[in-house]
Amino acid sequence: MAPPPHRSRREVEAAAEEEEEEEARMSIYRASRSIKRRENSLYNALRSIYEDSVFVAEIAGLWPQLPLVANLRCGLWYSPRFHSTCYFKSTDGHTNNCSFSTSRLNLHVAHLAGQRGGCIIVDSTRKGKRFPDSMSKTIPIWACVLNRAIKDLLQTMVRDSKRDGELLNISSNEGAEMMPTSANWDSSLHLPLWVPDTEKAAIEGRLEDWTKQFKACGADIGSLASILRKPLQPLWISQRTLIWLNEVPDYNSWDFTPIILVSASAPDGITEQRTSSEYSWHYISGAGDDEESWARGLSPKLFWEHAFDLIDAGPELCNRLVADIVEKERVYRSQRSEYFPQVTVKPSELLMSSDNPCFDGEPVMESKIMNTDVCVNPLKVSPPIEKQSIFWLGSTNLAVASTLHVPDALGVVDCVLNCDANSTALCIPSSVFYLHLPILSSKLDRFSVINNLPLAIDFSKSNLIRGKKILVCCHTGEDISICVCLAILAFLFDERGSFDGGKSFVGKNITKWEMRRQLVFICKFAVNARPSRGNLKQVFGFLSRERERLVNLEPDVHAA
Q1: What's the pLDDT tens digit per position in 485-512?
Q2: In terms of domains, do 449 and 303 share one?
Q3: Which of 12, 102, 296, 477 has the highest local Cβ count within 10 Å?
Q4: What's the average model confidence in pLDDT over 526-537?
Q5: Which one-letter DSSP state was computed for residue 268?
Q6: In this protein, which residues make up the domain named Rit1 N-terminal (predicted)?
Q7: Is residue 55 part of a domain?
């Protein structure tokens, strides 16, 4: 065996220097990671959200009659009082990849704005941007497409009424009022100034196709036209927006229905290290985003129920307090047979220290935004309007809800189809037919939905035939239960929405576009519906497979 080659002294010294440099690089990397972890701590996130909520409360106070709407999921953290929620995805507004989604029409937002004269939508974004793409492009595209469809309908109504020799069957004065409404209806695209002209032109080139898709998807454009007296138009407000409080315009004076888009977080460039009388903390822009990575099981609802205690606890006690809050909520829900995820936290992360001084009484934060002397307490707002928990899908005898609200529905339904994979045994009376299908999301199991749909269809068919009312539930009431209802409607109901037990299913044309039409029908009633693409693909695969199977069986049936 040959001896190892002899290295000169210079080579040994060079190797030692390389090792020292590598060790130094690793030390710098570890230090930077440690600093980043400290900056992105749980307390910093919650304190940042609380600070930003003061700004949101200020803006909401400028137009108190307008309902506050949270864009899920990030926006839900920034106020304890929301009238409703919406779901506009930033991916639909990404540069050179803009789209109009018929799966996320958010028509309830347009209806709400029409009823109340406008609305305020809250969201936030990570540092580097003033507004998320959902506000810069997704919502403006949505508003423009709806405006174009409504204008086309109004013009058609006026044209048809003139052809028939009467003006919409109403008096001449009312007709004169209607004419300019349709003729002057603004259907142009309104984008913020920071969107380049080239991108704006590209978006405008696709508006006609998007409008045609919207008209064809089965949405009730007539109801939108009847409730919206003015076209929709977005306005943008961030923490850099200058507003003169003595010149805040009355939204009724505008010739459009305002969709006020509030980006809650301070953009990059504002000082990030902040201090209070007790300790310093690091501001995180868009802290409410990606809650799974930092919230440790805390929800927006739990946060606002304990906001003062959490903010007062300081950085060193915050982790322990959150763990206690989440555990108490888990125990409370388990006693009521409700599922609540258990969060495991490393002991090293439960930092403890001596008690910090508490606020004397109820803390009120003085706002320095917009150079005013207004004192704003984000928790001192009117209580939220009670949210609808059970959604009936028209006259189909189908309802959708989360498993949390099943007890509330037991008095009005005959059957429960529980699709919550994490649900414990529910206390269901013997008079109610019950089936539990533990369906997992497509992210966890790509075939869970498609494998469980046959049982869901059989259960629904046997009960709908007898005129029973069925509640379909899942953990959120927004995804899997919506997909199961979509399959039931497509399989057991005809194109007019009447139950036929599947007689017309073989003759149906199962296309993704037809599925979108059915989904629009569901979303008309279940306004919180947010089915994932992976789960919808499984529904489409199931329907296509079953139709092909039944078509192949037909010759055998006729031969017999």
Answers
A1: 999 999 999 988 899 999 999 988 888 8
A2: no
A3: 477
A4: 91
A5: B
A6: 35-327
A7: yes
381 domain residue, yes or no: no
Query: Phi and psi at residue 524, in whole multiples of 5°?
Result: -60, -30
Are 199 and 317 in a shared domain? Answer: no
Question: Which candidate, 132, 147, 244, 238, places its Cα nearest to that of 190?
Answer: 147
Count of residues in the chain: 560
Examine the domain organization and report whether 94 and 237 are in the same domain.
yes
CA distance 117 to 255: 11
- HEC string for 418-485: EEECCCCCCCCCCCCEEEEEEECCCCCCCCHHHHHHHHHHHHHHHHHCCCCCEEEEECCCCCHHHHHH
Q: Which helix (H) or strand (E) holds 326?
A: helix 307-335
In the numeric block, which tokens belong to residue 371?
């150079």
Q: What is the pLDDT of residue 350?
A: 41
Q: How far is CA 114 from CA 100, 111, 122, 233, in A?
A: 21, 5, 18, 12
Question: Which region, left, alpha or beta, applies to residue 355 given φ > 0 means left and ψ of -120 to 50 means alpha?
Answer: beta
First to last CA, the chain: 84
| Domain span at 530 | 391-554
Please state whether beta strands 84-86 and 68-71 pair in parallel, antiparallel, or not at all (unpaired): parallel
Report, as an integer, the average pLDDT of 146-163.
Answer: 85
pLDDT at 546: 93
Question: Closest Cα partner for 404 from 389, 419, 384, 388?
Answer: 389
Residue 35 lies in a domain: no
Q: How many CB atoms lie within 10 A of CB 508?
A: 15
Angle formed at CA 325 by CA 355 and CA 426, multiple of 5 degrees: 165
Chain-centroid distance, C-alpha 100: 16
Percentage of residues of the chain with pLDDT beyond 70? 78
Indicate the residue among 239, 263, 287 that finishes a domain.
263
Residue 478 to residue 401: CA distance in whole angstroms: 8
CA atoms within 13 A on the CB side of 450: 17
> In one letter, which amino acid is 324?
D
**Does residue 351 lie within any of the structural domains?**
yes
Residues 329 and 356 in one domain: yes
CA atoms of 222 and 499, how far apart (whole Å) = 25
Tokens of 351: 């930092």
Which of 348, 376, 404 marks a domain boundary? 376
Q: What is the 3-state secondary structure (H, E, C) of 6-75?
A: CCCHHHHHHHHHHHHHHHHHHHHHHHHHHHHHHHCCHHHHHHHHHHHHHHHHHHHHHCCCCCEEEECCHH
- What pLDDT shows up at residue 460? 96
CA angle 130, 84, 149 (to 5 degrees): 80
What average pLDDT does the chain have? 82
Is pLDDT at 36 greater than 60 in this prediction?
A: no
Instruction: Please report the pLDDT score of residue 379 as a whole number.
Output: 47
pLDDT of 271 over the 50 cut = no
Helix (H, G, I), strand (E, B) or coil at 416: strand
Q: Are residues 240 and 320 in the same domain?
A: no
pLDDT digit string, tens, across residues 425-450:
677 777 789 999 999 999 899 999 99
Q: How many whole angstroms separate alpha carbon 196 and alpha carbon 348?
A: 48
pLDDT reading at 40 higher than 80: no
